[in-house]
């Protein structure tokens, strides 16, 4: 996939976007299961068929956001798409921290930077 992206990345600006919202007024149980930072970041995917809790989805969203920024700073933005492919190939919709680290390792990205 990278061979197709490298030529066009110099001509485009790619910034991944993610949907989260604050829910500081939500019940504590919802914030514990569907949010991070005590309701500062929550997801609409809470209770979805992915098998993951909303909190886990928000954490993966934040990992992807940070990863995209790091790869952009390093000038290797195309690796972001490699990460997305790798993580879904490895784990499907069950993107856990372990799966995230395996995908980074497979792409030779330092997990401590993300």
Question: Overview of this structure, please?
Answer:
By secondary structure, the protein is mainly α. It has one domain (17-113). Helices cover 53% and strands 4% of the residues. The protein is built from five helices and two strands. It has helices spanning 2-9, 28-34, 54-74, 78-91, 97-106; strands at residues 35-36, 41-42. A two-stranded antiparallel ribbon has the order 1-2. Helix 1 runs antiparallel to helix 4 (78-91), helix 2 packs across helix 3 (54-74) and helix 4 crosses helix 5. It is globular and about 50 Å long.
Keywords:
globular, 4% strand, 53% helix
Name the structural class: mainly alpha
Question: In whole angstroms, how far apart are the ends?
Answer: 22 Å
Shape: globular
* CA-based gyration radius: 15 Å
Number of domains: 1
Percent helix among the residues?
40-55%
Q: How large is the share of residues in beta strands? A: under 5%
Biggest sheet architecture: 2 strands, antiparallel
Strand order of the largest sheet: 1-2
Q: What is the helix/strand order?
A: HHEEHHH
Count of DSSP H/I helices: 5
Give unreliable regions as ranges. Answer: none
Strand segment tally: 2
Mean pLDDT: 83
């Amino acid at each position: 996939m990278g061979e197709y992206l490298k030529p066009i990345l110099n001509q485009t600006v790619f910034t991944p976007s993610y949907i989260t919202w604050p829910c500081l007024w939500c019940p504590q149980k919802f914030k514990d299961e569907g949010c991070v930072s005590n309701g500062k970041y929550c997801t609409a995917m809470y209770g979805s068929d992915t098998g993951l809790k909303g909190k886990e989805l928000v954490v993966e969203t934040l990992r992807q956001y940070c990863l995209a920024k790091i790869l952009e700073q390093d000038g290797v933005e195309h690796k972001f798409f490699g990460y997305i492919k790798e993580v879904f190939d490895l784990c499907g919709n069950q993107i856990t921290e372990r799966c995230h680290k395996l995908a980074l390792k497979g792409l030779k990205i330092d997990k401590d930077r993300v």
